Amino acid sequence: MKKPIKPEFIFSKSSDWIKLFYTYVGTPETYHKYTYSLERGEDEKIVYDYIKKFSKNKKIVLIDLGIGTGRELKFLKEIKNINKIIGIDYSKPMLDFCKNTWKYFSIPLKLIQDDFRNLKNSKKTIQNIKSPKIFIMLFGTINNTTEKDRVLMLKSVKRLMTKNDRFIIDLISVKFQKNKLPIISIRG
Predict the structure, then answer these.
(1) If you average pLDDT over residues 39-55, what whole number do you get?
(2) Residues of the chain with pLDDT > 90: what percent?
(3) Chain segment 3-13, per-residue pLDDT in tens
(4) How far apart are CA 124 and CA 158, in angstroms?
(5) What is the 3-state secondary structure (H, E, C) of the chain?
(6) What domains sit in the chain, N to C, each tagged with a CATH number?
(7) Distance CA 34, CA 52 (A)
(8) What is the pLDDT of residues 74-111, one digit of tens each?
(9) Residues 76, 8, 13, 183: what is their CA dihedral angle, to the nearest 10 degrees?
């Protein structure tokens, strides 16, 4: 059996990031309390408003690509028409952390470890969903990979989308890094 190829991270290796994360954040309980003390950012407000408007008269499934710690769950739990959240991440330690944070929420959550470049571990789960889906890739997830991997990631998501689905990507640009302003692209 072939060993899976790991994505190339531009800024750091995944394991380095996780060690740093645990050093500064601590436990899921500490992280949950801290994130709840923060106000919703401008990028979160835009995403929240779009998802709320899109799901106004229908039940949806939200697919969070790069769920990591589950930071965005604090505002997504407020949207009434989200039937389920599927959280996908490459990092098993981040999925474990998210699972421990999730106990504070009530929306059904399924966590899947997968490579965004092909989404083969998630494919069957996603294809079996009959209700409209919103795919989200927030907080610069796509920016932490090479250009080649970005193309593969976007193609793998596109293959799983139907005409009723949407894909929201939060991109970090040079403008963001200078002025701390997010640029958000909404397809659909």
Answers:
(1) 79
(2) 28
(3) 444 443 333 34
(4) 15
(5) CCCCCCCCECCCCHHHHHHHHHHHHCCHHHHHHHHHHCCCCHHHHHHHHHHHHHCCCCCEEEEEECCCCCCCHHHHCCCCCEEEEEEEECCHHHHHHHHHHHCCCCCCEEEEECCCCCCCCCHHHHHCCCCCEEEEECCCHHHHECHHHHHHHHHHHHHHCCCCCEEEEEECCHHHHHHCCCEEEEEC
(6) 14-187 (3.40.50.150)
(7) 25
(8) 788 788 899 999 999 988 888 888 888 777 677 888 99
(9) -40
The amino acid sitting at 57 is N
In tens, the pLDDT along 111-152 reads 999 998 899 999 999 999 999 999 988 766 777 778 888 889
**Paired tokens of 8:** 């190339």
Residue 53 token pair = 């408007």
Provide the residue type at 38 as one letter: L
Identity of residue 146:
T
Amino acid letter, residue 159: R
